[in-house]
TrEMBL record:
GO terms for molecular function: 5'-nucleotidase activity; metal ion binding. InterPro entries: HAD-like_sf, HAD-SF_hydro_IG_5-nucl, HAD_sf. Gene3D superfamilies: HAD superfamily/HAD-like. This is 5NTC nucleotidase. It comes from the Eukaryota.
Length: 150
């Protein structure tokens, strides 16, 4: 466990290569990106806000399911159309329903909104998280139940 210092010194002292170390941090650039790029360490990002996200997803799962169903319905409508089709289906009512469901989902998160989603799209943070962190959780305590052999 290192709090500050040189990553080269840590690797030398432990006699390990970068991939043998799991670095835990709570800052995507200061901790995760730098340790991954400099030493090739595996990374674990602590995202305390994830606990609230999971709570909302669990409590409002019916909204997420409805949004998924609406998306599938739209996909089926457009599945057999091509650029030469002269008829376009009227999807105005579906679009309104998607907007209503998305707005209701967004209101569950408070003024700042979801850290991971904006409407039906991932946020920049979510994209960076998926790109740079090997693992992530709301707390490092989640590791208490995993064997060291992983």
């Amino acid at each position: 466990l290192a709090v500050t210092g040189s990553s080269d010194v840590v690797c030398d002292l432990l006699g390990v290569k970068g991939k043998d170390i799991l670095y835990m941090g709570d800052h995507i650039f200061g901790d995760i990106l730098k340790s991954k790029k400099r030493q090739g360490w595996r990374t674990f990002l602590v995202v305390p806000e994830l606990a609230r996200e999971l709570q909302v997803w669990t409590e409002k799962s019916e909204l997420f399911e409805e949004l998924r169903s609406l998306d599938l319905f739209l996909a089926e409508l457009y599945q057999h159309l091509d650029s030469g089709s002269s008829e376009r289906p009227d999807i105005s009512s579906i679009k309104r329903r998607i907007q209503k469901v998305t707005h209701e989902m967004d209101m569950c998160y408070g003024k700042m909104g979801s850290l991971f989603r904006c409407g039906s799209r991932q946020t920049l943070f979510a994209n960076q998280l998926m790109r740079y962190a090997d693992l992530y959780a709301a707390s490092f305590i989640n590791f208490l139940y995993y064997p060291f052999s992983y």
